UniProtKB/TrEMBL annotation:
Gene3D superfamilies reported in the protein's UniProt record: 3.55.50.30, Carboxypeptidase-like, regulatory domain (2.60.40.1120), TonB-dependent receptor, beta-barrel domain (2.40.170.20), TonB-dependent receptor, plug domain (2.170.130.10)
The keyword Chaperone appears for this protein: no
Domain TonB-dependent receptor plug: 222-349
Protein's GO biological process: siderophore transmembrane transport
Keyword terms, alphabetized: Cell outer membrane, Membrane, Signal, Transmembrane, Transmembrane beta strand, Transport
Record protein name field: SusC/RagA family TonB-linked outer membrane protein
A GO term from the CC aspect: cell outer membrane
InterPro entries, alphabetized: Beta-barrel_TonB_sf, CarboxyPept-like_regulatory, Plug_dom, Plug_dom_sf, Secretin/TonB_short_N, TonB-dep_OMP_SusC/RagA, TonB-dep_OMP_SusC/RagA_CS, TonB-dep_rcpt-like
Domain Secretin/TonB short N-terminal: 69-119
Native organism: Butyricimonas faecalis
Major subcellular location class: membrane
Amino acid sequence: MQKKRDDGIPVREACVKKWFLVMKLICVFTLFLVLKASANGFTQKKVSLDFEKANMLEIIQELRQQTGYKFFFNHNELKKVKDVSVKFVDEELEQVLDALLGKVNLSYRIEQGVIIIVPGKVKNEEKEVRIIGKVTDEKKQPLPGVTVIVKGLTLGTSTDVNGRFSLTLPKMQNVSLLFSFIGMETQEIKYTGQDSIHVVLKESAEQLEEVIVRTGYQNIDRRKLTSAVQTIKMDDIKVAGVNTIDQMLEGRIPGMIFMQNSGQVGAAPKLRIRGTSTVLGNREPLWVLDGVVLTDPVNVDPAQINDLDFVNLLGNAISGLNPNDIEQIDVLKDASATALYGAKAGNGVIVITTKKGKAGPPSVTYSGTGSFTRRPRYSDRAIYLMNSKERVDVSRELVERGVYYNNVDSWVGYEATVQDYYNGAIDYKEYNRLVSYYETLNTDWFDIVCQDVFSHSHTLSLSGGSANIRYYASLGMSDENGAIKGENNKRYSTTLNLTANYERFAARFQLQGNVSSRNYNPSELGVLDYAYNMSRAVPAFNPDGSRYFYQRTSSTIPVYNFNVLNEMDNSGDKTKGNSINMQAHISYNVIDNLKLEGTLSYAVSNTNQSIYFTEDTYYVHKLRADRTERNNMCPVGGELRKNDVRNTNWMVRVQANYTKNVGRDGKHNVSGSAGLELNSQRYDGFNITRRGYHRDRGKLFSSIPQTYTGYYNQFMASANALGVITENLMNSVAWYAMAGYDYDNRYMVNLHIRGEASNLFGSRANDRMMPIWALSGRWNMKQDILRSVDWVDDMALRGSFGYQGNMLSNQTPNMIIRQEADYTGKYGEFRSKVAHYPNPDLRWEKTASTNVTLDFSFLKNKINGSVSWYYKKTRDAFLTKTISEINGTTQYVVNSGTLVNKGIEVSLNFTPINRVGLDGGKRGFVWRIDPQLGQVLNELVNNAINNRNNVLRDEIEYTDMLTGDVDIAGEPLNTFYSYRFKGLSPVDGSPIFYGAEDELQEELSKKYNNMEREDVFLEVMERSGRREPYLQGGVSNYFGYRNFGLSFNLAYSLGNKIRLLKLCTEYGTTNPNPSSNLRREFVNRWRKPGDENYTNIPALNTVAGAHASPWWNSGTNVTHRIASNIYEMYDNSDIRVVSGNYLRLSSLSFRYNVDDRFCKKLGLKSAYINLTGTNLFTIAHKKLRGQDPTQSGSSPSVNLSVRPTYSCNLSITF
């Protein structure tokens, strides 16, 4: 039975009628749009006319032939019109008809595709005149936004997107028009009654460079930019001897924090754009190449990447790119700029645009660079260590005071000589000779494990093409040697860019490929750390030149003869990589206002890492323990670790762009874009650790005797030995849209929105398509209220507000059980484990971002710049919560934090003197200075967890407080704490700390036992500061005269704190090992009562174990452990904390451009030679005594500092 409505009409029939009604409305609306578009298309047809005293019928006939359009008119009326003279070149039909018919008092209208000419209204030609025209540059490209004013009046207008303008003004004598545009010379044109005016503006000698901002989805004229984007040309930041793009960004981008924690070749810096918007997620920015997102070759855990002490030697997304192939870099900072990239863009986006071919004859360019890098030396200010005599003096004091040595792993140097003398192995004369030998030995460990190196790079490129087809191709090679022996980074790269245009079609194809090879010493060796901490009173070679081996041992392993060069020869960390990235882009102009685009990309990379130790290494020696069958973990051969990763990803994007000028004056412009994007990213990995490896026997493996059934069998049953296969797949689909409105190039509003779904979001139906959106606007005040202010060349105010989101990839609403391959005989089945704990209530991290920027240019572009203020607030930030092990895991992620980032950015450009080009050549003097400043204030706020001391993590250790690896409400991320130094004991010179005094043992023990662990830590420690700087920037300076140029770049960093390096690595348990060196500060140590009034350096520990287990660390007096010993407390006390502020001369460059006449004689188009020095010196706090401020004393080992490099670059184009 059919269900009836109240009026008796069946529901199905009603639906059919509604359907037909909707279809009719759609057809009518479509027909209207077609007719409207057709009418608009008529008037936008371009024509050319050149007649002298011709009648109107001839002119109309010519227009009919050129356009193919139908004209309807009265012949008798047109015969009455007097003859006219007209000249138009490539003008739109609308402009021609307005000018032509307006002169003879006629007008027109369009009906059903026919242009109808009718009599016009009678005009009082004596009262007003209408001027029309077009403005282009020297390349005949239309210039929108050109200011056109009548000289002497405030009356004026501006050109539309096609460079056209119209102006109606009272008829007057001597009318002159002024045309002004950013970066162009202002022109004055007299109006003498012409039909139209064609003005060509030339670039100013003091021009503000024309910039097109490229966001990956849009190309935006800088004068229409509403978002927070910093654009830099690669030629402005390229530094000879620096082979990766990210290392060139230090001090160049306001609001970007740059941290380089190692000077090892190929080490990637850490970048933060406008602070940190997540606690647990990846904090690095997103890299984009020509509109396509790049991914890291290896999927490293975010916790490791975020660790400020982690040295990334595996490379990042742009490690394989050749800087010589890059044209421009755009850094997207706010929500409006990054919204179209979705959830993965919460940390900012860096868009790289590669070079494209230019029309013209083939042009070949060769660029070659040779670089010299200086190794560390004991004479460097950064190496504040004892020499041999000072180190022997410490050993002598220990011996003379009868101090007992325990836990000594190496009897060597002075201590070994004393032992031999006491045991009668040598006589007194030999004893004195050896002591004198060790006091003057001064082994140069940095010379032994490091080297001064030469590196070189070469690029050969080819560019050219016609107006329709253009090409750019390059081959690049870089061979970069490290200051640490055995370390090297080689890269071979190629790039191909093809661009084609044909009528309404445009296409682009590009290919980037690279092959790389990286060689390092394994991190277990800690080569630089060894050189820094090794006593100079220990030799590396025997008197005959052979290697000196000293004995190393412990309570669990037998004696081993150790020499660091032997360790380096018999171990290695080798990584081979290759990648290829292909893109295809096509666009089609359906009509003049509508363009369709499609992009397809595919990328694949392979990374193969091998780390090996032969059986002749201390690492393998320790695995063998006491060499018994039960304890031996590597009975035969050495060890090999393999880690292979394959990364594949593809992207498909379709996009439609529409723009339309509304109104006869063309002052209203509406635009919109919409698109759909599909992405897939996959990591496939395999890693395994095998023992019994013989590198010197064909890289084969030995079978292990079955008698080794102890710990070795346990190792063979582990996942590392069996091999681990990993698969990580991320698929996503996204839609996005952009809408914009522009009135007269004065007021602009844009809306960006994106929604995306991904398998990372699980089954959360409500959260899958969370929209990310942003609204932004711009007011070009120069085109409005400041039009007549001569000294203001440009001024604009732009602002934005939007929301971004983020979701962790390892969270799911469902319990994920991983089936293990571990078979247990006891239960007769395989084991399983909880891979992901169910988290159905987890919500997105949401970041609200506000940005306000003022752009300005004064005094004929001598002063340019921008000032920005931003505020970002992240709600529902992810934090960890400890749960019971009975759940199969110990941690749980919750939405319980709020992050705030705010700051000010200043970017300035001063050109006090610019005489270049005044005589048409490369003459005159130019001086340009560009200061940059960016402030980032970060704070973690807690709204969900209410505990008295604001610690937002349940389980923390005292070491987390010392390293800044703890989240505390009201404090910036990476805030670290230090023990409160009270002074030195007047009895024995040992350090004393507030909250750990021996005389208050009973009182403090009772107090601490009734306190929570976090309360105890905050009682004995105090806040030292943040490890990340909050203010960074730079100053670029350029002097030019004729063919010579001199430039330098300063980078500065303010606001962070660092620890001084430890006095000694083993110091604290008892006393320094005979093989260990100490910082030179220890020369001024406490030696006798009263010295505590003059020094804060503790005395030698004269009683073995006296301070190794104090009352607060015995395990019986207090519940919570606050340190290992008082010397660990000293190294991590507030007295060892200093400012990390620094000013660095990051580069100094001298360039000579070979004279054009000489180049022509050699058959060259151009050539230059460039001499550059990088990282030449650093000014920092005097207490650092030369310690590199980028080297944190909190790091478990000493890393290589950024080294000075001297380079020569030659570039030739022919």
